[in-house]
Amino acid sequence: MSNFFAPRTTPRSQPDNKSALATKEPKDAADLAVGRWWFDCNIPFNATRTKNFQSMADAISAVGLRYKMPSYHDLHGKILGKIADFMEHYKSCWSLTGCSITADGWTDEKQRTLINFLVYCPKGVMFL
């Protein structure tokens, strides 16, 4: 059956009855909640252009109302560990294709220096 029906989380898939009958207000409320979180965290707008942004929203949508966002400890622990394992895939191509390293530094209000390192390669970007 899966060959005949696209998953509901793919682009341009057929909406379910609930989303098809939804009014504009719930979408506006969801957009506002995302916007409040986005601005509160000072996330750059171009983060929406990453390949993982829509897939994150689709995965949350697929779980539905019962989905609860991961806690600080979940993100800092088991999820970060899984992501670190995935990032090894990116590192494996560095010796084959090469990479570019970009550094961005700044000083906070207490005169503490922070340097961000980004590694660019054909497979993607990695924050170190």
From TrEMBL:
InterPro entries found in the cross-reference section: DUF659 (IPR007021)
Domain DUF659: 70-128
Region forming the signal peptide: none
Region (Disordered) location: 1-24
The name this protein goes by in its record: DNA binding protein
Highest classification ranks of the organism: Eukaryota, Viridiplantae, Streptophyta, Embryophyta, Tracheophyta
